[in-house]
Fold this protein.
Amino acid sequence: MQLGSIWQYPVKTMIGGQVNSAQLDELGIVGDRTWAVRDEAAGVIANTRKLGHLMQLAASYGAGGSVTITLPSGTRVSSTDPAVDDVLSAELGRTVSLWQRPSAEQVDFFRRAPFTGDDIMVELREIFAREETEPLPDFSKFPESGIEFETPPGTLYDCYPLMIMTTSALRSMAAAVPQSVIDVRRFRPSLVVNTGDIDGHPEFEWSGRRFSLGTVVIEVINDCPRCAAVTREIAPGVPADRAILRHVVKDLGQAVGVYARVLQPGTITVDDELRPL
């Protein structure tokens, strides 16, 4: 098994890009999710439930750690532009602001908005895009911090530092839902492992196991339950599609890919071998 691609997302929820090599530390890929959009109307980090259009915006790094955001129209705006919040708010139809990742001590930034409806189950089904007859995911697969916080304080990833997928998984989903566009950008992996002609989703067998990759050691935690994000439009050629999530819920135990943590920081490069320890 070899590392097929490394993905870095400068701004949480926006389209990122591939890099040939990366440094990893305890927060995952260095340079990953160092910025986020804050929904000022809700007072929380923006998410795909309310601002799914965010997934059509792309982000890349500029000078000095700044980010350049490209709108679907092709218009670009830099985080250094005093008008950046106004541009993003106009694009998203909601008052938002762009933030560089605060420290863990700024806990209020990371807090989750309280449930507001009379029925918490209705809100949970909306978050996870589950139909009335479908089960909700196993919440024990998420960190306990998720009850109180949108992201673990001091980070901008949803649950764990890394999300790993395989080429087998992408190929298997394409075969299972042939009318859907199975684009890797829907699933926002950190790493995609080339697993050759293996069928199915081999990463589901990796929970609890440790692997070396370059000079890094990682530990797979558990599979990654999926929410509404995989149903969103990414680009005109990758339209909104709920059929993919129906397949994931019905046939894949509600998950695609696996979460992992970094046990030994270091460097990884495309084509590095993934070795079980």
The mean pLDDT is 93. Residues 2-276 form a domain with the M1 Pyruvate Kinase; Domain 3 fold (CATH 2.40.33.20). The chain has one domain: 2-276.
